[in-house]
## 1
Amino acid sequence: MKCFSIPILGVPYKFKIGNLYELNIDESLQGTCDTYLKEINIRDDNEIPNLLKEVVIHEITHALLYEGGLITDANEEKIPEFMSVMFPRIFSVLEEFDKSIKEC
Ligand SMILES: [Zn+2]
């Protein structure tokens, strides 16, 4: 299992990356974000392409919404679900934007 800490809006969050048994989380979940303990768990035992990255974005979005004071309900799933799918697309649009603006 890998463990490290990353500040999210200035608040250190402990990340634990591992399999279902190492993380001891519900098997129906791919990750968790505990805004009280400041801890994010991410499963790395699935074979679905890009799922790990989507789960990371999903759980980080929970922490951002909480630490940013926007949404304190940890069960709010719509925005994290949206961001986990859309963020990579937003990022690729930004890359195209950067490339295009340099060519002008
Ligand atoms: Zn969630």
## 2
Amino acid sequence: MLQRLARSPPHIALGTDKVHGASCVQYIRQGLDAGYRMIDTAQVYNNEEEIGKAVRSSGIPRNQIFITTKIASGFRKNPSTLKEALDSVQGSVRRLGLDYVDAVLIHHPGDDAANGSAALCRRTTWEALEQSKIAGYVKEIGISNFNAAHVAEMRQYAKLRPSLIQMEIHPWYQRSELVRLCRKEGLTIQAYAAITQNKHAQDTELLDMAARYNVSTAHVLLRYSLQEGHVPIVKATNLDHLLSNKRAGSFVLSEEDMLILGSKHKGIEGSIFPWLATNADG
Ligand SMILES: NC(=O)c1ccc[n+]([C@@H]2O[C@H](COP(=O)([O-])OP(=O)(O)OC[C@H]3O[C@@H](n4cnc5c(N)ncnc54)[C@H](OP(=O)(O)O)[C@@H]3O)[C@@H](O)[C@H]2O)c1
């Protein structure tokens, strides 16, 4: 399912951070009605119940929808025991109210500098994800905000390899080394902040491209992400945004325009979420 969704573009995942209550249910229902089939949530977003409710009431066969959630035990912190981690995963499945979750990710590797047991916690949490996958209530397991060293470290302890990774990627923060490594490892990349929360909407070259393709700057950035082979995640609670973002599948950026966007990299300075970065692997 993941491979099929990731390989047959355009696939854009609906971001849900800071969307709650009835407006969350409505947003997801509108997204599903518009043809979106991937949803991104996390325990810390506090909306798994609403997302489950929207999916269950949509009438769309469960196997056509891909829901990713992410676990943590606090800010940049992971469970320290296997039981805590297993309970955490099962809590997500229960709140979603579905038989299974398509993907569960470790939201953040933890703070190695501040917490001497961060490495042990991510290893323990990974073991819980492996067991959840073997038990069948989680279909895919993965990681988020891991850097290249964290990905490499997993070779020493993972019995099951991750199949997807979520990270911030857009022209201003490209993570080339990490992207190369993830591609080599066969990981599907979900790119968050793919439209940079619109922070570059006034960039003159981006505006010029948007005018030439007769789309918006957000659509150009979504298209860039798709052409890079990522699954972009975008939050679009405004119905016009939600519907129009599908246009990212209707045009192709030229090689020259991809190169112009590719020249905007600023390393960690270009990150929208620098507090989630774990080193300058920009
Ligand atoms: N793994 C992680 O640690 C992590 C970290 C950050 C984010 N994420 C995930 O990624 C998702 C996306 O990140 P984000 O929400 O921070 O940023 P984003 O998707 O880059 O930006 C969201 C903003 O863009 C606006 N927007 C959407 N489509 C638009 C369009 N066509 N034209 C103009 N504006 C448009 C939205 O407005 P409206 O809502 O008003 O439409 C919203 O204000 C999150 O919701 C979350 O699911 C994951």
